[in-house]
Amino acid sequence: DGASHSILVLNNYVTANTADLGGGGIQASSIAPDCSTGTNALTIAASSIVGNFALGDAADPSTVGGGGIYAENVSQRTPDGVVAFRIVRNDIRSNSATTFGGGASLTVVADDDPDLDGLTQPSAASVQFENNLLVSNKAIDAAGGAAVGGGVSVLARAVGAQASAAVTQRFLTV
After folding, report:
1. What is the Cα–Cα distance from 140 to 144, expressed in whole angstroms?
2. Distance (Å, rounded) from C-alpha 51 to C-alpha 13?
3. Is residue 44 within 8 Å of residue 72, measured between CB atoms?
4. What is the tens place of the pLDDT at every residue in 94-114?
5. Are 20 and 56 in contact (CB under 8 A)?
């Protein structure tokens, strides 16, 4: 609480990788429990994420998809402005997943009472997914199951009256 952390993935070429459960090219997670102050940033920018693959079974809850990128931002009693999660100006192409998000799978969860103890605090989680080029990505389940989001799959969940979860998608070329 009160600390500052920053992770920047910049100008990388991520290609020909495979993951069993998700994040074939890049898996990026931010989990912020009870952080009331500080600044934390996770940014993936100006990178080429090409030809990666995420395996998995949609019936398995640990499968998250994201052939190119799996990004997760979880906020537990952490207010808006403490965590900044940005995925911007990337070339995301020719990636595939057997479940969710051939190009990218984005999960955002905010919970104002994660311990279910009645001690609620404002909680906000978001991901900015902006100015990315998504080309020829696929979500295909060879077994005939439910594969969704060839380009991008998004899940945003707010739990509790003081929680908000959002994904901003702007200026995408899909």
Report:
1. 8
2. 11
3. no
4. 999 998 999 999 999 999 999
5. yes
Helix, strand, coil tally for the chain in percent (to 5): 0, 55, 45
**Which residues, listed in sequence order, are joined to residue 88 by a DSSP beta bridge?**
45, 130
Q: Which two tokens stand for residue 163?
A: 């929680």
Amino acid at 174: V
> C-alpha distances in angstroms, 159 versus 7, 120, 141, 155?
27, 11, 30, 13
CA–CA separation, 120 and 160 (whole Å): 8
What is the C-alpha to C-alpha distance for residues 111 and 31, in angstroms, rounded to an integer? 11
Handedness of CA 46, 51, 52, 54 (dihedral sign): positive
Contact 82, 40 (CB under 8 A): yes
What letter does residue 21 receive in the DSSP assignment? Answer: S
**Contact residues for 146 (Cβ-Cβ < 8 A; gap 6+):** 58, 99
| Whole-angstrom distance, CA of residue 71 vs CA of residue 78 | 18
How many residues appear in the chain? 174
- This prediction's pTM: 0.93
Integer angstrom CA distances of residue 20 from 37, 59, 63, 97, 139: 35, 14, 8, 10, 15
Q: Does 36 or 125 have the greater pLDDT score?
A: 125
90 contacts: CB under 8 Å, gap ≥ 6: 44, 45, 46, 47, 48, 49, 69, 132, 133
